[in-house]
Amino acid sequence: MAISTKTLPDFITVLAGKDAVPGGGGASALVGAIGTALGNMVGSLTVGKKKYADVEAEIIELKKKSDALQGDLLKLIDKDAEDFEPLARAYGLPSGTDAEKANKAKVMEGALRDACQVPLEIMRKCAEAIKVIEGFAVKGSKLAVSDAGVGVIFCKAALMGASLNVFINTKAMTDKVCAERINKEADTLLAEYEALADKIFKLVKDQLK
């Protein structure tokens, strides 16, 4: 069974166990999907209300984007697990001889590079979700604005969590040019979207107090 189709109790049980997957990457993708869905709920509670008729078309478009992001993030739960398997195998390669050491180093480098890609994609999706939730927070139903605040903080947490799964892999890479390029994108996403998420959270909180 794919990880993303497990029941929530089963997912939590496996997450707490000794299995390497799901781990921080898959958990981050799930949290991002939940955060995106919370923003989407604000949209669902806005569409069809006369008070918000002038922004309904925009809200519908935001909901379409949210639907796509939710699906993408759920798929990334399984993709993260799939991409970890080659890295796990690489760690187990023999390294008794010089030839074996060279082969292991080569395989490890490729596996580490590939293992960065899913958490980096989770970060990109969470960044998109934060922008979408901003629209829900500003234009959506004020009766549900707290859910936009919860959603954006979930997406921020997922963004930050996924970044650690990027950095633990780039730290082990020997190709420092490639590692720095990957780290630069992750750092840029963190700098921009942590700040935006905080701004949206404050906007929501100020409406509630």
Question: Can you walk me through this structure?
Answer:
By secondary structure, the protein is mainly α. The protein has six helices and no strands. α2 packs antiparallel against α3 (56-91) and α4 runs antiparallel to α5. The longest helix is centred in the middle third of the chain and has 42 residues, at 98-139. The chain is elongated and about 75 Å long. The mean pLDDT is 94.
Kindly summarize this structure in a few lines.
The protein has 209 residues and is an all-alpha fold. The protein has 6 helices and no strands. It has a single domain, classed as Formiminotetrahydrofolate cyclodeaminase monomer, up-and-down helical bundle (Four Helix Bundle (Hemerythrin (Met), subunit A)).
Low-confidence stretches are none
Could you say which structural class the secondary elements and strand pairing correspond to? mainly alpha
What is the N-to-C succession of helices and strands?
A: HHHHHH
Q: Rounded to an integer, what's the Rg over CA atoms?
A: 20 Å
**What is the CA–CA distance across the termini?**
45 Å
Give the proportion of residues in helices.
over 70%
Overall tally of structural domains: 1
Question: Based on CA inertia axes, which overall geometry fits?
Answer: elongated
Q: Could you give me the name of the CATH homologous superfamily?
A: Formiminotetrahydrofolate cyclodeaminase monomer, up-and-down helical bundle
Strand content: under 5%
Number of helix segments?
A: 6
What is the β-strand count?
A: 0
CATH topology: Four Helix Bundle (Hemerythrin (Met), subunit A)
Per CATH, which architecture? Up-down Bundle
Mean pLDDT: 94
The largest pleated sheet is described as: none
CATH class: Mainly Alpha
